[in-house]
Design goal:
With about 400 residues, the chain is mostly helical. It folds into two domains: about 15-280, no CATH class; about 285-385, no CATH class. It has helices at about 15-40, 45, 65-85, 95-115, 120-160, 165-170, 190-210, 210-230, 240-245, 250-255, 270-275, 280-315, 340-355, 365-385; strands at about 5, 95. It is elongated, with a radius of gyration of 29 Å. Residues about 320-398 have low confidence and may be disordered. This is Fatty acid hydroxylase domain-containing protein.
Length: about 400
C-alpha cells in the first residue's frame, strides 16, 4: 500500500492552522474559568487559594495591562506561525502498513530472543504491533517532546535570571506578578515569549517527530499546563497538580523574593531543578518565611521597647504641673508601594519606624505617646501577619 496523506480533522481548516489556534482558545477558556472562580470566592475554593486577595495589591501591573500584553504576544506568535505554515507546503504522509509490518517484525524477533515465538500466535503479534504503533509510539513521542520543552525552558529561564541585562529588559516583566493568576501565564516580553514558548514548542515538535495531530495535542496541553501553574490555587483534587510535581504551589515559590533563584523548571517536571540544586520545596519555603517573620517581629518589639523607654525618660524630666495638648503623631504614609521585593519594603518599613521615634516627633503627653506606640505595634504585627504567603490560602501547605 502506498503512503497516504493524512486528512485534516476538520474540512474547513488544516491541522497545522488548528494547532496554532486551539491553544489560544484553551488559554482564554481556562483563564476565564479561574477568573470567575476568583470573583465568586467560593469557600470551597478559597481555602486552597495560595495568596489572599489583599495580597494581589502587591502586583506591579494591573489586570487590563496583563490582558493587553498577552493578546499582543499571541497575535505576533500566531502570525509568525501562519507564515511558517504557508512556507511549508509539504503534506503529512503515512504508510501505516509498512510501519505495522516493521513493528510485527520487531515483536517476532523479541519473542524469538526469549523463546516465546511458539506460544504467541500471529494474530496476537498483529495486536501487539497495532498497540505499539498507534498508542505507545504516540505516548513516547509526546514524552520526548515534554522532556525537550522542559530542558529548553529550564536553561533559557535560568539564563534570563542570571544575565542582568536579560532580566532587566525582558524577564522582569513577568515578575511584576507577585501573586500569579491564570491570565498572567503568558505575560512576558514578546521577545522572551517567542524564544521560551514558540521556539521551545517548535523544537519539541521537530525533534520528537510527532505528526500534526500530535502537535495539536501537545501545544494545547502545554498551554493548559502553563495556565494551571499560574492559576493561584493549590487544588488537591486537580489532576494536573496531582500528577505533575511542577504545579501552581511549586511555581508560586519562584515568584516570591526568597525563591526567585529557585524552581526554574517549567512546565512539566522538576528534574533539572533537582539535578542542578535549584529545587525548593514548600517545607523549605515555609521555614524561610517563619525565620523572616521572627526577625521582623523581634525588630518591631525592639523598636517599640526603645521608643517607650525614651518616652518615659522624656516625661520624667517634665514639671509635674505641665500639661500639653495631645498632638496627632501618626504618620500619614501607607504601605510603601506594591514592590514584591522584600529588601526594598523592609528598608522603607524601618525608615517609617525611625520617623516615629520621640526624637523625631513633636512634644506630647506620655499617655498619647503610649497609645500611639501600642497602635503602631499592633499595626506592625498585623502587617507581619499579612506578609505570610497566606495563612489559609496555601492550600494547607503551611
Amino acid at each position: 500500500m502506498a503512503p497516504t496523506v493524512q486528512p485534516p480533522l476538520f474540512s474547513f481548516i488544516s491541522d497545522q492552522s488548528l494547532a496554532l489556534l486551539l491553544p489560544i482558545v484553551v488559554y482564554w477558556t481556562y483563564s476565564l474559568l479561574f477568573h470567575w472562580i476568583s470573583l465568586q470566592e467560593f469557600p470551597w475554593f478559597e481555602k486552597y487559594r495560595i495568596h489572599t486577595k489583599e495580597e494581589e495589591t502587591r502586583n506591579r501591573v494591573e489586570l487590563p495591562d496583563v490582558i493587553k500584553a498577552v493578546v499582543t504576544q499571541q497575535l505576533l506568535q500566531t502570525a509568525l506561525g501562519f507564515l511558517a505554515v504557508l512556507a511549508d507546503d509539504s503534506e503529512m504522509t503515512f504508510d501505516d502498513e509498512l510501519a505495522l509490518a516493521g513493528y510485527e517484525t520487531r515483536v517476532i524477533q523479541l519473542l524469538s530472543f526469549f523463546g516465546l515465538q511458539k506460544i504467541v500466535s500471529l494474530s496476537a503479534v498483529a495486536i501487539i504491533a497495532h498497540v505499539c504503533y498507534y498508542y505507545l509510539e504516540s505516548v513516547a513521542r509526546f514524552t520526548v517532546a515534554m522532556a525537550i520543552l522542559d530542558t529548553w525552558q529550564y536553561f533559557l529561564h535560568r539564563l534570563f535570571h542570571a544575565v542582568p541585562i536579560l532580566y532587566r529588559h525582558f524577564h522582569s516583566r513577568h515578575h511584576r506578578l507577585y501573586v500569579t493568576y491564570a491570565f498572567g501565564a503568558l505575560y512576558n516580553h514578546p521577545f522572551e515569549g517567542f524564544l521560551m514558548d514558540s521556539v521551545g514548542a517548535g523544537l519539541a515538535f521537530l525533534i520528537s517527530g510527532m505528526g500534526n495531530r500530535g502537535a495539536l495535542a501537545f501545544f494545547s496541553f502545554s498551554t493548559l499546563k502553563t495556565l494551571d501553574d499560574h492559576c493561584g490555587y493549590n487544588l488537591p483534587f486537580n489532576p494536573l497538580q496531582l500528577i505533575f510535581s511542577n504545579n501552581a504551589d511549586y511555581h508560586d515559590i519562584h515568584h516570591q523574593h526568597f525563591g526567585i533563584k529557585s524552581n526554574y523548571s517549567q512546565p512539566f517536571g522538576t528534574t533539572w531543578d533537582r539535578i542542578l540544586g535549584t529545587h525548593m520545596s514548600r517545607e523549605e519555603a515555609n521555614e524561610i518565611i517563619r525565620k523572616r517573620n521572627e526577625r521582623r517581629a523581634a525588630q518591631v518589639a525592639s523598636v517599640a521597647a526603645g521608643s517607650i523607654m525614651s518616652i518615659a525618660t522624656t516625661s520624667s524630666s517634665k514639671a509635674p504641673h505641665a500639661h500639653h495638648k495631645d498632638q496627632d503623631v501618626l504618620s500619614g504614609g501607607n504601605n510603601g508601594g506594591n514592590d514584591c521585593h522584600e529588601e526594598s519594603e523592609h528598608k522603607a518599613y524601618a525608615f517609617r519606624l525611625h520617623e516615629r521615634r520621640p526624637g523625631n516627633l513633636e512634644r506630647h503627653s506620655t499617655g498619647s505617646c503610649l497609645v500611639d506606640r501600642e497602635g503602631m505595634l499592633t499595626r506592625s504585627r498585623s502587617r507581619l501577619d499579612s506578609d505570610l504567603i497566606s495563612r489559609e490560602g496555601l492550600g494547607k501547605a503551611l
